[in-house]
Specification:
The protein is an all-alpha fold and 324 residues long. The chain has helices at residues 2-7, 15-24, 28-46, 51-82, 96-104, 113-123, 125-128, 139-152, 173-192, 194-198, 201-217, 226-240, 246-253, 255-277, 283-305, 309-314. It has a domain at 2-199. The protein starts with a helix and ends in a 10-residue tail after the last helix.
């Protein structure tokens, strides 16, 4: 879904078609937060929680890839600017403080902010773990209260930058961590209320699909709550699909690499290739080709990188043969 969102910028689609596609994939990043909250509760329940070890693993998993690939993408962009391949100067010749702000805001590679945001949420787990100590029935109320509060004050921004200072948008990590916390809590709710929900996941899937289809067909907007409907559909589908399906396992293992690598270099290269080969093709068909080829290319590139010890380290897997 993340790849599909970014691919829309490289295909000649616009108007209602583009708006519909983006609305369908609006749960892309929230799903990452939801899954992390779900798995945090699962790991906490299964063993004694050590905050120091958890934070150290989170540094390896999230901060190392953020540093390494931020340097790579900044260097790549700087080289293109220096040789006048890109006319807009975002790096070369800019004051250090403005360059630092652009890097922090993920303006050069827009997906990188998520790594910092998730790390911040994980850093707050000494507070979040107390959710596991309160009565289970009260956890949904905590989640709903936070979601309502956040969406009531969603205009809050801790830092800001002008459009001229941001290439590809501004994604301030602290603000997005506060935004993502609602989905993290939603994932925690799904785990903590799992026994009641697990027995009814097929009913949840059917009801959610019917409600989502109805709202889209009659053009009813559920606002921010529509994302939770989409997350319920996604979660229910993952309960139905067998975990032994090999292609899902392969995508799962390559998720970090796909997320980091697909943009901007791979997506740009694939976009140019598809545009050159299918210049007169259908815009929607071009979009599908760009999305699928970018996903496949990023997954294959991830496999090549993680085949070596250093490659696993820079993608957040440490020096182990398997990720954590």
């Amino acid at each position: 879904m993340v790849v599909a969102i970014h691919a829309a910028e490289y295909a000649d689609i616009s108007g209602q078609t583009k708006a519909f596609l983006l609305s369908c994939f609006g749960i892309a990043v929230p799903s990452f937060f939801m899954v992390d909250g779900y798995l945090f509760c699962a790991s906490f329940k299964s063993r004694k929680f050590d905050y120091g070890v958890y934070l150290k693993k989170s540094c390896v998993r999230l901060l190392i890839p953020w540093v390494v690939f931020t340097v790579i993408y900044v260097g790549f962009r700087a080289a293109l600017e220096y040789f006048n391949v890109l006319p807009v100067r975002v790096i070369v010749g800019r004051p250090v403080e403005k360059l630092a702000m652009s890097i922090y805001m993920s303006s050069i590679s827009s997906q990188m902010y998520f790594l910092l945001s998730l790390f911040l949420i994980r850093a707050w787990t000494p507070v979040l773990r107390y959710l596991l100590l309160v009565p289970t029935y009260s956890v949904p109320f905590i989640f709903v209260a936070y979601a309502l509060a956040w969406n009531e004050f969603s205009g809050l921004r801790l830092f800001s930058a002008s459009d001229a200072e941001c290439l590809g948008g501004c994604f301030e990590p602290v603000t997005h961590a506060l935004w993502g916390l609602q989905y993290y809590l939603f994932g925690a709710c799904l785990f903590l209320c799992g026994e009641q929900v697990e027995r009814r996941y097929r009913a949840v899937l059917i009801c959610s699909l019917l409600m989502y289809g109805f709202t889209k067909s009659v053009h009813i907007s559920l606002g921010w709550s529509e994302q939770y409907l989409g997350l319920l559909i996604l979660w229910s589908m993952m309960r139905v699909v067998s975990s032994s399906d090999r292609w899902i396992a392969q995508i799962g293992k390559a998720t970090m690499g796909i997320y980091i690598l697909h943009m901007p270099i791979v997506l740009k290269a694939v976009g140019l290739l598809v545009t050159a080969l299918l210049a007169q093709g259908n815009a929607l068909m071009n979009y599908l080709f760009i999305t699928i080829l970018t996903l496949v290319a990023s997954a294959l590139l991830t496999r090549v990188i993680t085949s070596v010890r250093l490659g696993r380290a820079i993608l957040g897997e440490g020096y182990a043969k398997t990720g954590t």
